[in-house]
From TrEMBL:
Residues 395-415 have a biased composition (Basic and acidic residues). Residues 40-124 form the Rnh202 triple barrel domain. This is Ribonuclease H2 subunit B. The keyword Transcription regulation does not apply. One of its GO terms (biological process) is RNA catabolic process.
Amino acid sequence: MARTRSKVPAGGAKAASVAEEQRSAKKQLQPVDVPSRTFILPSKRSNAARFLTLQTPTSKASNRYFFDPEHGLYEFTSVASTPFAPRSILYTPKPNCSDDKQSQKSTEAYVTKKAELLIATPVDVLFFMLSIIAPADNNSSTKNMFQPLDDILDSQDDLSPHMRHIVYDPTFRPTLERRMEAMCDTMEAGDEKLYRFKEMKLANELVAKAERMVSQGLPASLEQHFVRKALEPPLMSVKQENVVKTTTDSETTTGGHSESQDSETLETQSTSATTITTTTTISEQQSGTSTPATQLSTADDISSLDNVTRLMRLRISLSFIKQSYLPPHLSSTIDEIFVSPESPIDFQPLDDRLKELADLRAEALASYTAGNYTRKRGFDDEDETDTRAEKKRRKEEEEKKKKAGESRGVRDLKKVNTSGMKKMSDFFKKK
């Protein structure tokens, strides 16, 4: 049987080759399976480290955590670009230095759509234990009793599997017991240690954490907005006293003879304007249109201000800890402790200073409002004066125009005394 060979036009072969290249290129550009989120894990971690899903202490929402029995529990802090300045990240594997050409061929890189890094940062397991040892609906008879840790954990039937993995891990058990002692009263019963939750010990532990935050320094945004701005005294407008000293020396020479006249005038002007030029050192020291409402004069005042600033930083740190890690029912309890006489830290100087600043701001606002009203009334008076002057000027111009159009005879008749004469209308009255 004869074999027939079909002929393909040259143009068709070229089109077929182009289509084949496009299909191969499309096949190469298909997305690969890459992680959608990037985690930065601790450099020192054991083989038993795991990703866990736990409920957050505040809202009970599920979140991702990293647990290492030897190094503790970590939460993930997101560091991402803002929506107004989007960024992306290019990831490439490390090339093999032994065979550069082969490594370049096998290297596969990818770009993330969103520049976001989830950095593992240590978190205290104490906050996760609060919902176990001090739940919001704890009405049992063992509420104020000393109990072993195992009995406390066994009584919790609604613990998640991942939380059970943490609390029952034998390697992590010493760390768990140490953190329990930080917020509980303890007592020994034979070979067993018993625990009872104590709100005051939790308050002391929160204050210690806040002290460490303050010693390391608050973020610049928190420091500027919540500390400096809150403690900044208002600017109060004051009346300035300017002393102007003018000395005039004049000499007149006529035909070789000179006559000198010296006069010295001392004027004291008291005004609140800001456009006065002073020529003596006294006036420069006394000039000024606004000054802080409070000025430091002694070392005691400076130390008192430093103490108030420190207390403000501590309050901001405590607020951050409570809002981020403390259950709501315990947060209100801690607030009551801080305002009680048994509080581990006294915020009364800070409260007095804030009240004083509030009064000064109210006074400054009232002064500013009154000054604006007086200035507005002054501007209105000036406008009325200008309007009256403009009307008077126009009236005088009209009178001048009328006088310029009158004849000399009319002007002379206006000067005649007509007091004894009858008016023309009297001759046309009805009899």
